[in-house]
Design brief:
Layout lengths: L1 H9 L10 E5 L5 E6 L5 E4 L8 H11 L14 H18 L6 E8 L2 E8 L4
Helix pairs in contact: 2-3
């Protein structure tokens, strides 16, 4: 997390204008998500989204991941559930936002290793 922050801050006068999300495992082996602004300021969050479809995806994540304003107990979410949620979130964003890309790359980080998959979105 600090390496990306330092890299972005180094370019603060001529920034990359990249708003990043970095996810991985912390020192305790727990999942960690960080969001960054263009000059390297970062924050650890429970979930995040950046880019063109952000305004469409964040309310979905607030409801299904953050469990905001829901009286029922929050159900456990497995790896397969999280991957399907990511796919559905981007499909939803693609329907309303022409700047959301043609595909997403999904990296699943587990003890056994890293699995990479590509999910094609729209082709128009």
């Amino acid at each position: 997390a600090q390496l990306l922050s330092t890299t972005l801050y180094y370019r603060r006068f001529f920034p990359y204008y990249a708003f990043n999300v970095l996810a991985g495992l912390d020192a305790e082996g727990k999942g960690a998500v960080y969001t960054y602004d263009a000059v390297g300021s970062f924050e650890r969050v429970g979930y995040a989204c950046q880019g063109a479809g952000q305004k469409l995806i964040i309310p979905l994540l607030d409801n299904l991941v953050g469990w905001t304003h829901r009286p029922a107990p929050k159900p456990a979410m497995g790896v397969e559930d999280a991957v399907e949620l990511a796919k559905e979130a981007f499909v939803t964003a693609c329907e309303r936002d022409i700047y959301t890309g043609d595909a997403i790359e999904i990296f699943v980080i587990e003890k056994a290793g890293i699995t990479r998959s590509t999910f094609e979105l729209k082709k128009d």
